[in-house]
């Protein structure tokens, strides 16, 4: 279908929206921990607050997905989510007690996490109508993350980290205004095919893959939760923290492009072994770093660790799982990589950081990464039988291409940085 002049602006508005919402992602992942630290919370308390997000995302994504499907609207739900974020950010800005913040941040996460899969879905459908590649919209999320990583750092260096929540309100307000110009769509977000879970979990090779991913995910989520705290302990200002996040977000772009062009020429397992080893090296260097500026340089390893891992793991997952179980497999992958690992690493990691210090904390993270490296390597040198799908398991519902792409792109947001 050809684009008419009346609908031509649709993609630019979606690009602007995608660019903007990743500003809140920067705040949640990088600057919320500093806000908590400024309130005097301990590292174990910060870890618990971080762990709440992945746990709430499981429930929130499901409920808002059902609501989107039932009422056949994405735009109206997006407006509700952004207004909810603004209200909860305002409440957080005046809250100081841990018991109050743990309640309010839980509600905030309920409005925060579903924005990304919903925005991916509406962008996928729009790109398909205009015969464009979805990545032409999604790439603006990566650009937005890089921009806001630096911009927010400079802003907070001027106004102070105590006003972090007011920045969150401002970004959500901009996204809310842009949403008014986005065309609504009634396509539901991708759902987990419950009938296919058992068929997937019976595959030993896939269980091994998820086990390796889970081990690596614990290490990665430990770093995510306490990187900004580490930078702060080393005397980093908000500006330096912004540069560190900028370095990691920009470094992944060339790797994504290279692997999209030439990645198929290399088998998945060697790449996964390499990526896990790079993660282990990265965490070891962070643990022994003695200055904030050295951490900026170490962040460049994000390209060789996360960049290689993300593209390769998704590629391998699509080969391990039959097409009619694809949406289910991607949902399980999200749980393993983001939700379950985030819950465990936030609570467990906070205690380790507080009781044993930064150096030992990152040694533990390095150990989990090395365990994943050994797991991938063992499968490479001692391959087992290839994945087989029983005929009886082929009763699952075939997901649409949009559903599959939505699951993958939503997972990319969760993983990024």
Automatic annotation (TrEMBL):
SUPFAM superfamilies: MFS general substrate transporter
PANTHER family recorded: 3-PHENYLPROPIONIC ACID TRANSPORTER-RELATED (PTHR23522:SF10), BLL5896 PROTEIN (PTHR23522)
Protein name: PPP family 3-phenylpropionic acid transporter
Region span, Disordered: 393-417
UniProt organism field: Fontibacillus phaseoli
The keyword Cell inner membrane belongs to this UniProt entry's keyword annotation: yes
One protein family per Pfam: MFS_1_like
Protein's cellular compartments: Cell inner membrane
Entry membrane topology: Multi-pass membrane protein
Chief site of localization: membrane
GO CC annotations on file: plasma membrane
Protein keywords: Cell inner membrane, Cell membrane, Membrane, Transmembrane, Transmembrane helix, Transport
TM segment ranges: 12-34, 46-65, 77-94, 100-118, 139-159, 165-182, 203-220, 240-262, 269-289, 295-318, 330-353, 359-382
Domain Major facilitator superfamily (MFS) profile per the UniProt entry, residue ranges: 172-417
Record GO terms (molecular function): lactose binding; lactose:proton symporter activity
